[in-house]
Design goal:
about 350 residues, alpha/beta, Rossmann fold, 2 domains, 7-stranded parallel beta sheet, disordered C terminus, binds flavin-adenine dinucleotide
Length: about 350
């Protein structure tokens, strides 16, 4: 590796496609390197990764190393660690950057141990303070931020998706692609296949109004309350946080966030949602946000245009009563289901 390259990005990909996190990592690496693109190299590891390597070099303008590992069809934490560990040991790399997604969270800490490196995970902010680099991450459910400094010679970082956005206007010349072979040794566990989830997320991605349920709704029996709230608006849909989906109150296709869907409705109503960064990243494109939460310090209120400090199971039935009463008193023809009526 070129001695000048002190920052290595490990591209995130699955099923033969580059994951969007990769573009965020490239943007983060450039900020970290103070715009010195020659200091950065992006590694793509796996089987048949040539076309992806070319695309990354084209899109980012950064140099790319295509590490071909015949047999590594599906992501494997063990194999990634072994391959990257062998390639980067004794290279004097300052930063190794991976996505804070399910892949990066699995292999990055293990890679740090293997390289005797420091590890800072879930980075969602970067500051330069009097010569020191401060890596920021949310703590206490997003209510506070920690500034982390690494004193290690090499530091492995995992970066939250959706925070560091590539500059669409900047089009550099394509980076160079170099190729390398890596031996595939099967790990102790292996993925035997991937079964795709039923894709019915289109409902929330296309909705003009999204009513999102969080753990604060209390119990599954309150989900019909969310449905009734959504029915107040044309072109609406009900979504939820990961906890709500984990509990089976909604299918995973309705989860909003970094590991769920990204939505950008005209109106987003967050019911009993704390506002964890992993959730917020999926709804930051919403034009107008209303949050209902009993905790006046909830991080969700930082993202909201209207903040209602109230028990959601008290507030929503009252709102529905008022709405139904108004409809009875002043019946209006149903609004046409078009762009203008969407909220
Ligand atoms: C790698 C990773 C990926 C993740 N991806 C996602 C993702 O894609 N999407 C996602 O949503 N999460 C994701 N998470 C989980 C995320 O970190 C949070 O745990 C989750 O978003 C919290 O869900 P919540 O707001 O429903 O619950 P909580 O954090 O428990 O918040 C519940 C809120 O409800 C409020 N409340 C309680 N009772 C009431 C009441 N009666 N009325 C009104 N408010 C009330 C509380 O004050 C609190 O603010 C991810 C986590 C990790 C580690």
């Amino acid at each position: 590796m070129n001695e000048k390259k002190n920052t290595v990005v490990i591209a995130a990909h699955a099923d033969g496609h580059i994951l969007p996190e990769t573009w965020d990592l490239a943007a983060f690496a450039q900020q970290l390197a103070g715009g010195r693109t020659e200091a950065i190299e992006i590694y793509v590891v796996g089987e048949n990764i040539g076309p992806m390597a070319e695309e990354i070099a084209e899109q980012t303008g950064l140099d790319v190393r295509a590490v071909s590992c015949a047999g590594l069809r599906y992501f494997s934490s063990e194999v990634y660690c072994r391959v990257m560990g062998q390639m980067l040991s004794n290279k004097g790399v300052l930063y190794i950057i991976a996505a804070h997604n399910s892949q990066g969270q699995e292999y990055a800490p293990a890679l740090a141990v293997m390289l005797n490196a420091g590890c800072i995970s879930g980075v969602n902010g970067l500051r330069f303070d009097d010569g020191a680099v401060l890596f920021q991450r949310d703590v206490h459910g997003g209510k506070a931020r920690a500034n982390m400094i690494s004193h290690a010679e090499t530091t492995v970082l995992t970066v939250q998706p959706g925070v560091f956005r590539p500059d669409a206007a900047r089009r550099a010349a394509p980076g160079r692609v170099s190729r390398q072979e890596a031996e595939y040794t099967p790990g102790r566990t292996r993925v035997s296949g991937i079964q795709k989830a039923r894709a019915d997320a289109a409902g929330i991605a296309e909705a003009k109004v999204v009513v999102a349920a969080g753990r604060g709704i209390g119990e599954e029996e309150n989900m019909p309350l969310m449905e009734s709230l959504a029915e107040m608006f044309p072109r609406s849909a009900v979504a939820g946080t990961r906890i709500v989906c984990d509990r089976g109150w909604l299918p995973y296709s309705r989860q909003v966030g970094v590991t769920g869907a990204t939505v950008a409705p005209a109106l987003y109503i967050a019911c009993g949602i704390s506002g964890a960064s992993q959730h917020v990243m999926g709804m930051r494109g919403a034009k107008f946000v209303v949050a209902i939460n009993t905790d006046p310090q909830a991080a969700m209120f930082n993202e909201s245009d209207v903040c209602i400090v109230e028990d959601v199971t008290t507030f929503v039935p009252l709102l529905l009563d008022v709405f139904r009463q108004q409809q009875n008193d002043n019946p209006v023809p149903t609004a046409p289901d078009n762009e203008e009526s969407g909220g």
